[in-house]
Hints:
Elements: H1 3-12, E1 22-23, H2 42-46, E2 49-56, H3 71-88, E3 92-97, H4 123-134, E4 141-144, H5 157-172, E5 187-193, E6 196-203, H6 206-210, H7 231-242, E7 250-253, H8 270-278, H9 288-307, E8 312-316, E9 322-327, E10 332-337, E11 352-356, E12 360-367, E13 372-379, E14 391-394, E15 398-401, E16 405-413
Parallel strand pairs: 2-3, 3-4, 6-7, 7-8, 8-10
Antiparallel strand pairs: 1-11, 2-12, 5-6, 9-10, 9-11, 12-13, 13-16, 14-15
Helix pairs in contact: 7-9
Amino acid sequence: MSARTALAASLLVLTACTGTYFVSSAACVRGTGFDCVAREDLATDAGPAVVSLFLIGDAGEPDPPPPAAPMRDRVLGELAADIEDARRGGSEARLVYLGDNIYPDGLRDATSQGRCAGARYCPLDAEQLDAQLDAIPEGTETYFLSGNHDWGNISGPEAYARIVNQAVYLEERGQALIPPVGCPGPTVRDVVVDGEVALRMVFLDTQWLLLPTGSRPDRESSPPAVCTYTDDDVMERLTRDLSIAVEAPVALLMHHPMRTYGDHGGRGSLTSAVVYRAGWSAQDVNAAPYARLIDRIDRVLEQTAAVARHPVLVGAGHEHALQVIYDPETDVHHLVSGSGSKVSTVGVGPGSEFSAGFPGFMRVDIHQEGTVTLRVRAMCPPRALEPLGAAVEHDGGVTCEVGDFRTVFAKAIR
Length: 414
């Protein structure tokens, strides 16, 4: 076994914690509480990162009132610090907000009743987006995906109005939705280093794809939608765009995960499990439109895997947890990073390598020659109204101090 192979193998055997909130199917060192850290410096073997991709989703929920720990503000502060660290090291940093940027109804305007009346945009909604905008370090290229809540968690003209509101608001702040408002994608953004593509990011608006066909925005909508793709068009374009995995690592980025063992996968809370089994929610993976979408994207990924020479990652939010799930059939790592502002219980299943119902985000470093390293960064959350620094015990016997922030999982992906 070569030194490089030995190191790669050692990185797969990382300390982890067991339990409902914080679990791993990999080698586990029990009783270590929140001190779950990788035992190797991944950069030692791979060299400095040339691109650093930061993934955070579902950051649109306001913080709880004091004295509870300010979860979202703490996570966003650590995120900004990590981005600055990457940039100081010479890495090209990219930040992706994975959707559900505003809870619970998207960006409402003066046409909405109650506390939004009389305002151009509902202040309660705009404040949630402002918190994420303000966390972006100056000069950091950032992308905002849309999630079901950004569409108002509804369908039809009112849903389109909510996502148009967010697109206009972001544009006024120097940012933009990706794919463009009313379009499903795929939209490609390449990170070029020394004249070559070091990372391809491919963005999909999965909520658009989950909408009933008759309720999708079109040229008759107000404002008119600029895209009139069919589902077949999207998949054909996706197949083409992912084919660059022959030459460079690829990250397929969207709101809805294709693999999950949280609430939307029927493995979270008892309530969510009942809803899941009853098939009541179109936002669960067993819903017919969602299941069809997964099947179609899986077929594209299988084609990609047949020719890929570099890692293919799928990044998503939607679940309020942190999960790393490896699918050997497509040779794809599914990175679920949806705990930017709220958390829920989560379990494990086939392919689970890491699963945590803690707030946090993920950092993916791309090194020269396409080597990829992954770090999961998480915060110890309060169970109720514990202040920062309070020692709490979470499900599964995980003991940690509220507000403590750590790298809790790391892996080399080759």
